[in-house]
Amino acid sequence: MAHSVAQPSATTPAAPAAVPAKLPIGAIAPWAVFFGILMLVLLYFVGAEQGATSVVSGEGVHEWVHDARHLLGFPCH
What we know:
By secondary structure, the chain is an all-alpha fold. The chain is built from three helices and no strands. 45% of the residues lie in helices and 0% in strands. The protein has helices spanning 25-47, 60-64, 66-72. It has a domain at 27-72.
């Protein structure tokens, strides 16, 4: 018993290839800088906001980020 395999005919149009959208670097750069600075500020408050480099006096920031310090491996006591 012969099985027939359907071959695409010459009249069948080929599907266009998907082309990713191009974003200009000028549209991405301000957001990358903003989030980079934000991440550095968060890293500072989680990792170093205590002792001699303290920006905020007291233990408030330390208590708010205490568990994050341990989760990320920063020693705090």
